[in-house]
Specification:
Layout lengths: L1 E3 L2 E3 L2 E5 L2 E5 L2 E4 L4 E4 L7 H11 L8 E3 L5 H4 L2 H6 L6 E5 L3 H4 L10 H8 L4 H12 L8 E3 L4 E2 L5 E5 L8 E5 L4 E5 L3 E3 L2 E3 L9 H8 L9 E4 L3 E3 L3 H8 L4
Parallel strand pairs: 6-7, 7-8, 8-9, 13-16
Antiparallel strand pairs: 1-2, 2-5, 3-4, 5-6, 10-11, 11-12, 12-13, 14-15, 16-17
Length: about 250
């Protein structure tokens, strides 16, 4: 979905844990950079290549990947993308999630108890394949760590907003040129409305809701939720409501 010239919300089908869902990585570009924000689940390289082509962008122009956090549906195709491109791609993430993305620490939500809860209702063959992924999740090197309120001087300016709670190193991104928030999983969309993160998969819900208050500092007109899609109707007012300012 084209948001504006230089900004595309991708719409990929994710089949995971026995469910099919649509996820929304973002692609932003200028004359010098093509930046992918989040990389879906394992095995989605071809879908990304098709999405780039549909947006009129050569996949070979990709030179930066920003990861909002460590969850497997956000880092899943990272190793495959990196190994199937000729040019070097810079991977950026917050330092708190870096060791999980690089595989030095186990992904925090993939402990044995949680894996059992998530897979116990699935057929045995699907349980086995998912557990195999969980036990050896995808990982890749993070080249650059980014921090709260850091402004990346690319694509019209991108401000990093540190929004922990959903994971320790979760970030969201504010695209200055487009007055657009890339929320990651700090927000979700459902039935035409924006909500806070899913409590079921957010280890520190109190911290996550505190993080939302940071959004009110920015002139946000549009929001892309990784789970839920695009919103551009009274988003500023809704963010104030979620932050408890209305």
């Amino acid at each position: 979905m084209k948001i504006s010239e230089g900004l595309e919300m991708l719409e990929l089908t994710m089949e995971f844990m026995g469910n099919k869902r649509t996820i929304h990585p973002a692609l932003v570009w200028d004359e010098d950079n093509a930046v992918l924000i989040d990389t879906g689940v394992p095995g989605q390289l071809k879908e990304f290549e098709k999405s780039f082509k549909a947006a009129g962008i050569s996949f070979s122009s990709l030179n930066k990947i920003i990861l909002t956090h460590q969850d497997i549906d956000h880092i899943g195709s990272l190793p495959e993308i990196l190994s199937n491109t000729e040019k070097e791609i810079e991977v950026l993430a917050h330092k708190e999630d870096k060791p999980y993305i690089e595989g030095d620490k186990p992904i925090i939500k993939m402990n044995p108890e949680r894996m059992k809860q998530m897979t116990e209702t699935l057929p045995e063959d699907k349980q086995a394949s998912i557990v195999a992924i969980m036990q050896k999740p995808p990982h890749a090197k993070v080249d650059t760590t980014i921090e709260d309120e850091q402004v990346l001087p690319i694509c019209g300016g991108i401000t990093v907003i540190f929004t922990p709670g959903h994971t320790p190193g979760h970030i969201s991104l504010y695209l200055h040129k487009y007055k657009t928030l890339i929320a990651g999983d700090a927000l979700v969309g459902n039935d035409g409305q924006i909500y806070g993160p899913s409590e079921r998969v957010t280890p520190d819900m109190k911290q996550a809701m505190e993080s939302i208050k940071k959004f009110t500092k920015y002139d946000i007109e549009k929001v892309i939720c990784y789970h839920g899609g695009f919103f551009d109707d009274s988003t500023g007012e809704r963010l104030k409501e979620l932050a408890g300012e209305n």
